[in-house]
Each structure stands twice: as C-alpha cells, then as structure tokens.
C-alpha cells in the first residue's frame, strides 16, 4: 500500500474501529472483512499523537499500530502467554517472577495497542481497571511479602490511570518499608503526551526511588510534544529508561537503532533494553532472528557512546526470565575481538 494518509490526520481523532481505519486511509476497503476478524481478537487504538506521525500505513509508525490480516496467522512457535505471566500471578494484578521484585498491573488499558504486544490477548479498552477490592488485595500481597524491594507498575499502561488513583497507589507503595524502588513502564509520553499533566506528575511524588521506563521503537516517535513531555518528567527528578523491541520493518537497521538511541540520550533517557520479540500470536511478520540482532548491536559498538548501547535481551518463553543475548567479544580462554572484529590474544582474561 503506497498512498499517503497525511491529509486525513488533521481530524486528530482516536481511531478504534475497522471502519475508522478505512475512512482514514490506513487500510483498504478490500481488507474490511479480514480486519473485522482481527478486531474480534485484538484491540486497536491509534491516538492523535501517533496518527500525525504516519506518512504511509507501512512506515515504521504505521506498522506498529495499524492492524493487519497477517495477525490471523499463528505459527507453532507462538503462544498466548509467551512470558508466562499467568502461572506466576499469586493474586489478580500481581506477577512475581524474580525474588526481589514484582509487577503490579492495576489496569489492562493502553493509549495505543501495539500489533506485536506480548499481552495482546489480554489488553484492550474492555480490559478495565482493578476494582477497589482487587487493588487492595494486590497491595496487601505486596505489604506481606517483605522480600519485595522493587514494584514495577505496568499493565496496560499505569499512566492511563487518573491522577487520583495513581496517587493512591504511589502513596500505598511509598508506605511499605521494604519497597525501595518504584518503576513505571509506559508508552504514554510518546503516544499521548497530553495526558502527562501537572496533576499526574504530582501523583508520582514519593520518597522512594522512582524510575520510568518508556517504550519507544523509532526515532520518529520522539515528536516535539513527546520530547517536551519527557523533559518535564526529567525536571521532576524522575530518571528515564528507554525500552525498545527489535522489529522487522521498524528498527532493524543499524541506522534506525543509532538514531533511536541517540534521540533517547538527547532527552536524558538511558537506553535500557532492546527486547527480542516475544512470540505472541500473529506477530511473525515482526520477527528478527537473534543472530541478526546481535550483528546490529555489534555494528553500533564503538560507533555510539556506551550510554546509548542497551542490553539486548530475550524473555525466555514460559516465564523463565530475561537473559542477555550479547553480542559477545570473548573467543576462547585468551582471545577477545575489538569493536572492528579484529582478534587480540591477551596474556590473561
């Protein structure tokens, strides 16, 4: 599909339905039936901030958010819960995979729905928010597990909560003596920066160490509004981490990754993780083999500052945790390769 959609973007309307996709020029009418079937399984939301960034439906922004009939094709490697959250959830809203930290998922709503999301069968506008009783049950679980030092707010997207509810959660976590660190995983600063109001930032205030990991996959997501939003968060004293997913057609070149990571550093965001794609259903079109990902990261070594070089990680399917994928530079007991690939034999390693 090669037609431009820019003239349609002035309406700045949140797009959710197949009919709206076609009317905006994001999908051809010939795909209406197939996309309606996709919609029965997976939610769609393209907020105005992202709509304005789409030049073509198959560009690096459009690919991330526009549904495709290819999502109906599920391979043998794909699974509905690829990282094993369900088996590691002692109570609704909590995932406990690592000894000293836990996820708190207060909602399953996002500002947009990525077509490669590993929770794509669970998130959506009808995913809702933990009700008061369920939220209190989840908080009580955290209160009664003193080994938990870090709580990671995720979902869904925690910045989709109202300032009042987010503030309630932050206050409750801040009152737990054993919790030293609160981390929020979000797409809102780039997908819906207008939501990051003074009231929302006030709700993030805590005596604990508060960090924010922002999911960004392409440099074009760093719009002027997104950059301004991120800089406001930095001025509030919140350290920013960048998380990206390696995606075919989006950021699978050295040039795309370099531009992305440099844009993060420019707003005082530390590139943290480059994720290998999780095998969620219908996501094969985005898959980049690990050996190719290692080659891409190796190509950036020495080319960008170490501040702009994230850890390339795989979340082992089945809930076994994240592991770094390299690339590696040690070969044998005393040989190491430099960033150019030249081997050097050392007296010892």
Give descriptors for this structure.
iron, 15% strand, three-stranded antiparallel sheet, 27% helix, 349 residues, nine-stranded mixed sheet, alpha/beta, 11 helices, 2 domains, globular, TIM Barrel
Description of the structure:
The protein is an alpha/beta fold. The protein has two domains: 6-72, no CATH class; 86-344, Aldolase class I (TIM Barrel, Alpha-Beta Barrel), CATH 3.20.20.70. It contains eleven helices and twelve strands. It has helices at 18-23, 32-41, 48-51, 62-65, 132-143, 163-174, 188-191, 198-203, 224-235, 254-266, 290-300; strands at residues 94-95, 101-104, 150-153, 181-186, 209-215, 240-245, 269-275, 311-316, 321-324, 330-331, 335-337, 343-345. The strands form two sheets. The protein has a nine-stranded mixed sheet with strand order 1-2-3-4-5-6-7-8-9. Strands 10-11-12 form a three-stranded antiparallel sheet, with no helix packed on it. A hairpin with a 4-residue loop joins strand 8 (311-316) and strand 9. The longest helix is centred in the last third of the chain and has 13 residues, at 254-266. The N and C termini lie far apart (53 Å).
- Please outline the major beta sheet: 9 strands, mixed
CATH architectural grouping of the largest domain = Alpha-Beta Barrel
CATH superfamily of the largest domain: Aldolase class I
> How would you sum up the global shape?
globular
Strand content: 15-25%
Structural class: alpha/beta
């Amino acid at each position: 599909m090669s037609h431009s959609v820019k003239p349609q973007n002035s309406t700045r309307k949140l797009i959710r339905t197949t009919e709206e996709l076609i009317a905006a020029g994001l999908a051809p009418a010939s795909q209406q039936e197939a996309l309606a079937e996709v919609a029965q399984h997976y939610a769609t939301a393209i907020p105005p901030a992202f709509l304005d960034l789409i030049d073509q439906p198959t560009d690096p922004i459009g690919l991330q958010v526009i549904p495709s009939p290819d999502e109906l094709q599920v391979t043998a490697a794909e699974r509905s819960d690829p990282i094993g959250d369900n088996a590691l959830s002692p109570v609704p809203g909590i995932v406990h995979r690592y000894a000293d930290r836990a996820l708190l998922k207060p909602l399953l709503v996002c500002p947009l729905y990525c077509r490669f999301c590993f929770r794509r069968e669970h998130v959506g506008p009808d995913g809702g928010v933990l009700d008061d009783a369920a939220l209190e049950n989840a908080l009580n679980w955290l209160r009664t597990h003193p080994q938990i030092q870090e709580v990671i707010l995720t979902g869904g997207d925690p910045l989709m909560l109202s300032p009042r509810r987010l503030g309630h959660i932050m206050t409750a976590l801040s009152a737990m003596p054993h919790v030293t660190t609160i981390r929020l995983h979000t797409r809102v600063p780039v997908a819906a920066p207008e939501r990051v109001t003074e009231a929302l930032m006030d709700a993030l205030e805590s005596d604990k160490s508060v960090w924010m990991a922002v999911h960004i996959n392409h440099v074009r997501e760093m719009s002027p509004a997104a950059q301004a939003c991120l800089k406001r968060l930095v001025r509030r004293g919140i350290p920013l981490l960048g998380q990206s997913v390696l995606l075919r057609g989006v950021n699978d070149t050295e040039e795309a990754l370099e531009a992305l990571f440099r844009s993060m550093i420019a707003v005082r965001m530390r590139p943290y993780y480059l994720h290998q794609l999780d095998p969620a259903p219908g996501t094969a079109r985005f898959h980049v083999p690990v050996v190719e990902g290692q080659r891409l990261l190796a190509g950036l070594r020495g080319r960008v500052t170490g501040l702009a070089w994230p850890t390339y990680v795989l979340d082992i399917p089945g809930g076994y945790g994240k592991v770094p994928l390299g690339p590696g530079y040690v070969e044998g007991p005393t040989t190491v390769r430099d960033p150019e690939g030249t081997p050097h034999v050392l007296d010892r390693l």
